[in-house]
Amino acid sequence: MTDLEATARNDPPWRERAVSRSLNAARSRAELRVQRFLDAAFELIDEKGTTEFTIQEVIDRSQQSLRGFYQYFDGKDELLLALFEETLREATDDLRSVAESEEAPIDALRAFTIRLYEWCDPSERPRRRSTHSRRPIMDFAVQLTADYSERVKAALAPIARMMVQLVDAANADGSITVPDVRRAAAIMQQTVMYSWFGKGLAENVRTRLSAEATWEFCLYGLGAPRER
Amino acid sequence: MTDLEATARNDPPWRERAVSRSLNAARSRAELRVQRFLDAAFELIDEKGTTEFTIQEVIDRSQQSLRGFYQYFDGKDELLLALFEETLREATDDLRSVAESEEAPIDALRAFTIRLYEWCDPSERPRRRSTHSRRPIMDFAVQLTADYSERVKAALAPIARMMVQLVDAANADGSITVPDVRRAAAIMQQTVMYSWFGKGLAENVRTRLSAEATWEFCLYGLGAPRER
DNA sequence: GCCCGAGAGGAAACGTCGTTCTCGCTCGAT
DNA sequence: ATCGAGCGAGAACGACGTTTCCTCTCGGGC
After folding, report:
1. Which single residue of A35, B28, B97, B213 has CA 20 to 30 Å from A88?
2. If 0-12 CB within 10 Å is exposed, 13-18 middle and 19+ buried, where does residue A200 land?
3. How many helices (H) and strands (E) does chain B have?
4. How much is the pTM?
5. Which nucleotide across the nucleic acid strands is nearest to B55, CA versus C1'?
């Protein structure tokens, strides 16, 4: 062990650099190929409107080999999980910037909430520069949750954390009044995020919920003083 | 056509009775066999905690033939849909009786809401005499919604209708104040029913939402006066 | 210049499942 | 006794995810 460390330390710098360069090359090559798979899968989801594409289609579209696919992904689930995590990463960045663009805590919470709603609701065509529909991925997330709750939880954690912070800030300055910040943030997130399940269930367009209606409901639920 | 009708009308009564009896026998025999399939599927779901049983298992358990299965069901989806509808029928009856046992509209709404929450939340072991876990079916309902939104909607309609009535009554007597009853009922139903998705997502037990917390959140969201 | 081994592509193969098909038995009516 | 409908049993099929195997290639060491 110590010998190995010593050897490593005594390696001429050029060797280290060379190895590193080789590794970097390999890494970027690998990342490129992974990205090709992801892009192909996103395209297929857009076209079909569902996550029910076949591996073969991904292979054909990305012009890579089945063997290569299984070299980079443990299976289809891993691919879908990667798509999900990628989508949530985008959403998180977007939500952060939206919330930060507001001054008052209650306004930030409102902006954050409405944008979160838009990310989850398929019928919305919001302001964000959405390159493709994430709807099928959000749908599939439910199934992912069943088998990979830890990873889904981890992917959702940044959004959950932001929600807690925003509720806490609004609670601190008196805009809202909640007994338990974390609990309130949880129910808030849940109400907003899972609102899209009501999609096919609303009997008519009139009763379909809007982002605004959801926000108001939450606002009073959080104990905001009601205007008369 | 007229001839046929005349013939039918002139048929001796005994023939009609005989046919009817035969049909009744066939019907009850068929219903029995369908029930065997349903029971077997329920058992499998209970044991495995998922709807991912195979048709073969249902066949084996119900001691019937694959051929028979496809004679009664168009496929696995139809079976799952039947289980879902059966479950909702039970839930609807239960919810109705719970709501009717309360006098004041707001109390009825509260009782209804909390019981509905319990029906959807897997972790709850409520007062109802639940013979088996409906959790996997509720999970799968999301996928069913994607392909059979009409049938899911229809199965959910009675519950939705009750929710509207209860919100309307509570709104009428001033317990709550909502601008749009149908809309309020919709968000209410959604918030309560889909709360179980937060299952794997809550980071710890403390932030996990209870039926009571959900009810309170909704109550104020619906515009109930807040006690100070 | 030659060889060798890692890596990648292609395709065949496998296992699981849902679904369909076919064969043969049984039973009740004529 | 016979015929036909109904039904059980199981083979077979097709779709897919996944694994495996064979082959080719390419870069580095002898």
Report:
1. B213
2. middle
3. 10, 0
4. 0.84
5. C18
Tell me, yes or no, if B156 comes closer than 8 A to chain A by beta carbon: yes
Determine whether the distance from the CB of A28 to the nearest atom of strand D is below 7 Å: no
**Which of A213, A200, A187 shows the shortest CA–CA distance to A123?**
A200
CA(B215)–C1'(D26) in Å? Answer: 68
CA angle B150, B187, B111 (to 5 degrees): 100
- CB A186, CB B198: distance < 8 Å: yes
Q: Which of residues 74-133 of B touch A (CB under 8 A)?
A: none
A21 touches chain B (CB under 8 A): no
pLDDT over 70, % of chain B: 78
pLDDT digits (tens, 9 = 90+) for A79-117: 999 999 999 999 999 999 999 999 999 999 999 999 998
Question: Mapped to the 3 state alphabet, what secondary structure does chain B carry?
Answer: CHHHHHHHHHCCHHHHHHHHHHHHHHHHHHHHHHHHHHHHHHHHHHHHCCCCCCHHHHHHHHCCCHHHHHHHCCCHHHHHHHHHHHHHHHHHHHHHHHHHCCCCHHHHHHHHHHHHHHHHCCCCCCCCCCCCCCHHHHHHHHHHHHHCHHHHHHHHHHHHHHHHHHHHHHHHCCCCCCCCHHHHHHHHHHHHHHHHHHCCCCCCCCCCCCHHHHHHHHHHHCCCCCCC
- End-to-end Cα separation, chain B, in angstroms: 76
**Measured distance CA(A64)–CA(A62) in Å, rounded:** 5
